[in-house]
Each structure stands twice: as C-alpha cells, then as structure tokens.
Specification:
Length: 261
Amino acid sequence: MRFLAAVLGVVLVSGCAVNKGTALASDFDDDWRGTPDVAEVLSSGDNALPFAGTATGELVVADGTGAGRVTQLVGELQKYVTRNKHVTGRLTADRITFTVVPTATLNTEALALWQSLAADDRVLEADLDQSDAGDLVRRRFTVTAGDPDTVMDVFHDMVADGGRHEPLREVQSLTVMTGPRVRPYLYVQTDQKGNVPEPQILAYEAVRSEFEVPHASVRADVQAGSIVRIMVAPGDVAAATEVARRAAPGLGTSLRVSDHP
C-alpha cells in the first residue's frame, strides 16, 4: 500500500486503583511502549466510578508498515483483549479503522474488508466498529467518500453480492457519506438490520437526475421509518417532490423535499 499508518486502540476494565481508568491508561502505555513498528502510544482514562473505570489506548504504527505486520499486530491485540474481557481494541491502517475482538474469525473478516477498502481510491476513510459479546455480534460501519456519485457506488459495492467489497455478516448498520463540509452532500444508511433503503434511493436518484441537489440524506430506520430528505432550489420543490413520488410512490411522510437541509 502507498501509505500505511496504523493505530491500535483499546478500552479495558481491570485493576484495583480507585481511579481505575487512569491506572489502566498508564498500564497500557507501559505494556505497549517500545513495540516494534509502533511510532507512538496514546491513552486516556475514564474514571466513571471508584474502582470501576475504563481506559482507551492507541498504538500508532509507523508509516510504511506492511500488511503482514499489521495483521501480526492485530493478532497480538486480539490476545491482549482476550486476556482482558472488557477490552475493545481498535486498529487504523491506511485510512481504515476497525475494532479488534477476541474472536479470530471476526478479525479475519475485518482485516479482509480493511485491505479491500484501503485499496479503493474512492474511499477517503472508514470506521468498522464491531463488538463480540458471546453469541451477540454487532457491526456498525461508516465510510466517507468524495462525492455523491462515489458515495452511492461504494454503498452498492458494500451491500450487493458480487460487489467490489465482500459484505460482512452481522452488520447492524452501514453508512456511506461525503465529508460533512462537502457540497453536494449525501448520507446513505441501512437500517439496524442492514436492510437497504431501496425506495428512498430510487426517489433520491430520480430527483438528482433532473435537479441540482446540494444536500440529501437517505436512510432506513426500524423505529423512525425509512426516511429520505432532499434539498433543492426553492423554485424546484414542488416539481422535485412530484418526481420523487413517481419514482417511489409508497414513501408517504418519510419523503421530504425542501429548500433547506
């Protein structure tokens, strides 16, 4: 890979100090300082209650570190979080961040997606958050791309069988978006079961094919219902609404076309 800077982060709960979070952060520094290919060790503690705190630690791996070494560090971090049952490990490499958990198969899958996304020049950055609590696995992914066309292409590549990026199992939500200050802005999200908001996407794409859309959000939500919000010029609101409803007539109140975000 052209650029590779990896960050390993952990959240852990143990120890017997009154300010456990602070103590754990210090322990993390001591445990990881001097690790080969780790350029910097960062940590912070959260002392939520006396004798019950957490700490976050990050290992910043040197630029140019190869994928094999990153994989090795993931294995070491996996062992670390396994020894500390309340640990959450994080790794960032070449714009992609993901969580390291005690289950090796989940980490193997995350590593494969990390390498796939890191090789995709359309992806500016991504966060692949996963947790492993016994039989309960939860994964939430957020991907940032450069523009609305790229956002939609990457989204489809991550949810469709046969796409560029192999879909992972147990995905609770996937969000693909432009940067928050990018215009035009687009935010696309599955629901909490990973279901794709297909009618909402149809409405958005129909409007965008005929009107300028500086800001839009398209999401599927189990509790709030699937929602699409599309911003157009003030004089285009009525016509754009009609276009959206023709494309997806069943949206009802989940569709809002307006002249503001």
